[in-house]
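One-letter codes give the sequence; each number marks local geometry. A record appears below:


***
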Amino acid sequence: MPIIANDILKMSRENVLNLYEPDQQHSRHITHLVLSMFDGWSELHGLRKNYRRLLETAALLHDIGITINFYSHARHSAYMILNAKLFGLTHKEQVITAAIAGWHNGVSKNYFKDRFYKELLSDANWKTINKLALLLALAESLDYTETSQIHVIEPGINKKTATLKLYAQGIPSIEMHQIQEHLSWFKKTFGVELKVQLATAAEE
């Protein structure tokens, strides 16, 4: 019997992307940035590689709620992910993925914990969701203007400090301002400061 899809999750989330027609260039760029953070800060977050595919799915679909309402799109994205035909995920994994996307503008525990599925997730699950949602929020801030101005990032760890070097076309002043909004969240979540550095032209 022929294999219909080598990666059923990849195919199903592409179907969701194409169905709701968000800004796919932005979504894919955000996904590239956030996976770079996940890989570069593996020592910092300490999460299993299985969570990488949940983060990838959340990043690709984080803006689909815009089709319902722009200003509250994060929670709408979460609802749509919860109810999407995402084959290849368990129900619990789909809830986690939805929560990651739903928090990309900031933590909103009440929205999820008041729902009937709250018993699926442990306190440890919520801590994991917080870490991954923070990474997604950072990535979102790095393409706030949706122009892909910041094209490469280099996450690192230097003693007791996390570092993030940005390579950009021009001066991404709006993105540099936006990422500052998440520094306290980063310190609270990981227990270290995040130092953001814009690479000079000579370094590119």
About this structure: Residues 4 and 11 are 10 Å apart (CA to CA). The mean pLDDT is 86. The first strand starts at residue 150 and ends at 158. Residues 8-145 form a domain with the Hypothetical protein af1432 fold (CATH 1.10.3210.10).
